[in-house]
Amino acid sequence: MARRPRTGKATSIDVAREAGVSQSAVSRTFTPGASVAKATKARVMEAANRLGYRPNAIARSLITRRSQIVAMAVSYLDNQFYPELIQGLSNQAQERGYHLLLFTAGEGETADVELMRVLDYQIDGLILASVSLSSAIAERCHQAGIPVVMVNRVSDTPTVSKITGTNAEGGRTVAHFLARGGHTRIAYLAGIEATSTNRDREAGFRLGLAEVGLPLHARAVGNYDAADAAQAVRTLMASAEPPDALFCANDHMALAALDTLRAELGLRVPEDISVVGFDSVGAANWPAYAITSFAQPVGAMISATSETLFAAIDAAIAGEPFEPRHVEIPGALVVRTSARLAPGVTDGGTWTLAN
Amino acid sequence: MARRPRTGKATSIDVAREAGVSQSAVSRTFTPGASVAKATKARVMEAANRLGYRPNAIARSLITRRSQIVAMAVSYLDNQFYPELIQGLSNQAQERGYHLLLFTAGEGETADVELMRVLDYQIDGLILASVSLSSAIAERCHQAGIPVVMVNRVSDTPTVSKITGTNAEGGRTVAHFLARGGHTRIAYLAGIEATSTNRDREAGFRLGLAEVGLPLHARAVGNYDAADAAQAVRTLMASAEPPDALFCANDHMALAALDTLRAELGLRVPEDISVVGFDSVGAANWPAYAITSFAQPVGAMISATSETLFAAIDAAIAGEPFEPRHVEIPGALVVRTSARLAPGVTDGGTWTLAN
User: Fold this and answer.
1) Cβ–Cβ contacts within 10 Å for residue A91, how many?
2) Is residue B200 part of a domain?
3) Is residue B41 less than 8 Å (CB to CB) from chain A?
4) Same domain, B29 and B77
5) Res B333 pLDDT > 70
6) Is residue B113 part of a domain?
7) DSSP code per residue over B24-49
8) Contacts of residue A101 in chain B, CB cutoff 8 Å?
């Protein structure tokens, strides 16, 4: 403790006296998750600050074996979906007295070399957002008693919990919606081929097209990347029979597709071609884009992730078994103006297969 | 180490033999910042993984007193500037064997209650991105030997390093640019009043207007918030003499201003009113917005922050003094199409006061 010469001098009794509260209130203030009135907490923090008091967090961590650290591995942050997810998960972790240790890895990679470093830290849990996991790392975490939750990805690893949207149902819904809108040359812009999100969205989309008796008119790969998506759109539109509708496997690509179609190719959306995305990120709702998109309810995904992770952490501490969960969060197609509508359908609401 | 039953069995000699490399190569692979060929590193990691070998990170941390953790406090992530910053800083930290422990706090707040928790962790440094710092917390960090770097904010605290853009010069440049474009009713949309960024951008903007002999025609407050900015724009445009140009203190507000002016009020930009922003975030460059904006070079800010922080950490470990730095990263006005241009000026480049 040589780096913190002033800590440990004041006791919780001193702080209680200074703040004019009970010693129990001081203890609760510094126990993550414990109940304490906001005003009381503020007074205790002020008094603790004046006196230089810190509870001995390291000693507490040795007893409880909790580091209060959850590692979080995320892929590229320029897709607006991830900053929203990080902010929400961080806020929920902080409410429980935990903080997120960030690992940035490439989208779709197993990122083993970087994830190995997770085990260099004393962590209480691991969240993977759109990052795959090798079975080797999953096994190491399992042996070390570290719960793992994957968000927006699935894997076959049985020891890992998974929180996803309804990817297949979303793709199927988009196919029916575009068919009802009178489109006949419907194309798919794929994300990274190896990801479960792309696989499930495309499978659902193809199923939906088959159900309405339409072929998949064309297919190109955008790799969940803006530049790759733009290039794929150029290729699709240069064909002898260009599509009249394009389903993009996420909004990050749909935004790039709209820019390319309108600003570069001079086309009108949706008069010349309809565009539908997936995720309903913030920018999809900006009036300059107004992208019809299958919404993944990020708030519900954040809550399910937190609940699953902290239930698993609590079980690990209690020495009890925890059955990994797969939670599917239902989504809905948010109708905006980037795709032509069937008669009677208006923008501004949601559309389901029951419509 | 009870939670990691399989660690510590294999030695670095075993790993070297398995990978067919020298023991020194194994050691360098697990020493953050040490030089080792990429292919060698990959072979060592694979062999280490097969054998269940981990270097004893906790023991190493006790000797070096380095936790390899840098705390990072950030404000709201829906402003694209911050995800870019986090991604870059995380990548640079990881190259040095460090990871970021995230603290999410409200924009412009001193966030003392949450930041106090920073001291619950054994951290090697603290980065504050657009979050203010009370002198009490700064003093506690200083006493504990924890270097602090503020990004995109300044404070009077002498023990803290600061990395900023050229906020005042940026505001001044925008004023001259708008005057040259023939605007006469120039308004300012302020960010959070208490922040140094708002204070400096506005001071420079007012100086620039004074230099060209123009008054500040109107002023409203958007609090660096999209909804507040939209409301401020409605108020400004409802006046008897609405502005013909609007300088928004950041792009996050400029995007909301453009949406409000065009989609809600039915105005043309820049024919009816010019809009200029600050930061040049990703969306400012999307063709649907194409916002003329004073660019804060985020790459250079990331590098300066990393260099300053790790120089301070190295000094702390060596027991040497470190003089806090204030680094100003020069920016430039990126000319796009959201503001009317002076004769002879074209979009697609940058504009400086020397023009």
Assistant:
1) 12
2) yes
3) yes
4) no
5) yes
6) yes
7) HHHHHHTSTT----HHHHHHHHHHHH
8) 69, 99-102
